[in-house]
Amino acid sequence: MDGPAGKPRRCAVIRGVLWLYVPFVTVTNNAVIGMALKYIEANPQERDLLRSLIVLALHGPPIVTPTTTPAHVTCRVALVSVDGRVLHTRAGGRSWKLPGGHVDGADQSLLGAALRHLAAQAEVEANGLIPASVLPVDVTPHPVDAVPTRDEPEHVHYEATFLLRAADGALEQPTSRQSSRRWVSIADVRGKLGDKLRSEAARSRV
């Protein structure tokens, strides 16, 4: 049986009744739609970028579940220091990037998912961090290549980036050898996100 987004769903027949398995998630599609609509209100020029996300969330399976195709939501953090630098992390020799990843079924919110990844990947806890908003500063769709070995088709990550500021002295050095992090100047952050971070930095200095 195929779900509305073309993804096979697990089902079983018990005593003549067809049961359809849908993963349980705390962050509902309605919550994602609400976030998207508020984000569009603040960024009306990006309406077309998020239109497909809203349609999928209205008619499809849980939009935050990592197995949902053709798209699902991921979260990350843009953590900015008091001197205007942005935290990047690296694991297993991969490229440097903002800490983030998929939403877990136990995450209470998209921001909560982003904070969980920040703690796991950079050893930075939420204490001492100041969120700019409960809404993401940026939402951008990114195409993801298929992974045949995992039976994973091509799909899209709608990456929600939350802006947080670190209070002076709030960050300690990581204790794990597996945790690698570095700070990058806001001036070196590219694309739409970089423009928004620089705009927010200029606004905070006023």
Automatic annotation (TrEMBL):
Gene3D superfamilies: Nucleoside Triphosphate Pyrophosphohydrolase. InterPro entries: NUDIX_hydrolase-like_dom_sf (IPR015797), NUDIX_hydrolase_dom (IPR000086). Residues 70-206 form the Nudix hydrolase domain. It comes from the Bacteria. The chain crosses the membrane at residues 12-37. Keywords: Membrane, Transmembrane, Transmembrane helix. Pfam families: NUDIX (PF00293). This is 8-oxo-dGTP pyrophosphatase MutT, NUDIX family.
